[in-house]
């Protein structure tokens, strides 16, 4: 009798070798290259398998499957080469598969892959914390805890703030993005798709208006915007209840919003006067991205806590909370932890990445990238009234698309532009509460010729698609 196949039987294992080895030319193109339609046949085949295996809730901006990456280029399994303006969401600042990071990871992974720092410690963890003490703003004594993801670090910063102040209210801003765990979602502003259907969210999180110069009343200063936020806070929360104000010094997912000068310093001063912590979520803006090691430096901010992740470890999952020693050490022994936090391979990658940032002067590279992008995109904005604003700091640049003649968000046009760029071999993403901001987050080691070619493509797409 033939056994009825169990519905749980896994599909027959097919060849798991990287399809690159069978389908791609041995020499990878060193510039933008279209070998097939986007997506090509191999990627399309994986899309079909994906639909049957991967949950629908996981999206992808471009349905092409990665095979390899160089500084500035992402190669797919069909042999297409895309100019990378996304860095895997601002992660591979030192370049994807950066040789020094790869070497450090290879060495560590051959020694030990994991012990759990709570079981038996290792030097890499301590060294990453030392680097964080030295690099983050302020010369005071600091301590750090290492975690795995940005959202997890945000959660731990909230723990610290509550333990250190004995208060519970957490104040966040309009357009904020702090991650996707339940507590982090409560702090994130945008409903769909991030929060829709997932409530209720953790209590005692309060949202106040931010400074969004392009959309605030004309001429509103940073101090005035801070006044607006602090009045709301005092009315709705009560100053004496606030454990922390958590800000992104440049808002990322919310639309690459740079607050007006004076806004963040005023919030910091208020925190100092009222015994609350000023917490900077530098997960996206940190590690050279904005033309400084941390975006807080642009306004001489010295946050009580700095949250880092993304570019910290060159593509491996690692995050951290770094802060004043006495504040961090308010958390009791055993109050921090997690199986994977500060994984040794991720720590090795972080130490190598930080060394590349330092010796490669990636702060300067970020500024140079910003100069190119601002000059060329602002020139483009002059002939396209649908480009409402070009803004950002360093290599964190956003282009807000609007309906010509006004400032109503042009989400559809922004999505069409991003798609058109992708079809021509430029990996460009969008962001923003209204999904109408083109976001530029290139690796900080992108060769200038690739960056300029990408902007040529964007110009072409704008000229064809924008009114
Ligand atoms: C990406 C991001 C997070 C969340 O990090 P994950 O690693 O995705 O959990 C939090 N805050 C900011 C500012 C981010 O950009």
Short overview:
The protein has 467 residues and is an alpha/beta fold. The chain contains 14 helices and 15 strands. The strands form three sheets. It has a seven-stranded mixed beta sheet with strand order 4-10-9-8-7-5-6, with helices on both faces. Strands 1-2-3-13 form a four-stranded mixed beta sheet. It has a four-stranded antiparallel beta sheet with strand order 11-12-15-14.
Provide structural commentary.
- 36% of the residues lie in helices and 15% in strands.
- α5 packs parallel to α11 (344-359), α8 runs parallel beside α9 (263-274) and α13 crosses α14 (448-465).
- The strands form 3 sheets. Strands 4-10-9-8-7-5-6 form a 7-stranded mixed sheet, with helices on both faces. Strands 1-2-3-13 form a 4-stranded mixed sheet. Strands 11-12-15-14 form a 4-stranded antiparallel sheet.
- The chain is an alpha/beta fold.
- β7, α9 (263-274) and β8 form a beta-alpha-beta unit.
- The protein has 14 helices and 15 strands.
- The protein has helices at 20-23, 41-53, 87-90, 99-111, 123-135, 150-165, 182-187, 222-236, 263-274, 325-328, 344-359, 362-383, 411-423, 448-465, and strands at 66-70, 73-76, 81-84, 142-147, 169-173, 205-208, 242-247, 277-281, 305-308, 319-324, 387-393, 396-401, 426-427, 429-431, 437-440.
- The model is unreliable at 1-13 (pLDDT under 50).
- It folds into 2 domains: 29-84 and 362-465, Aspartate Aminotransferase, domain 1 (Alpha-Beta Complex); 101-359, Type I PLP-dependent aspartate aminotransferase-like (Major domain) (Aspartate Aminotransferase, domain 2), CATH 3.40.640.10.
- The structure holds pyridoxal-5'-phosphate (PLP).
- Pyridoxal-5'-phosphate binds at residues 149-151, 154, 177-179, 248, 252-253, 281, 283-284, 309.
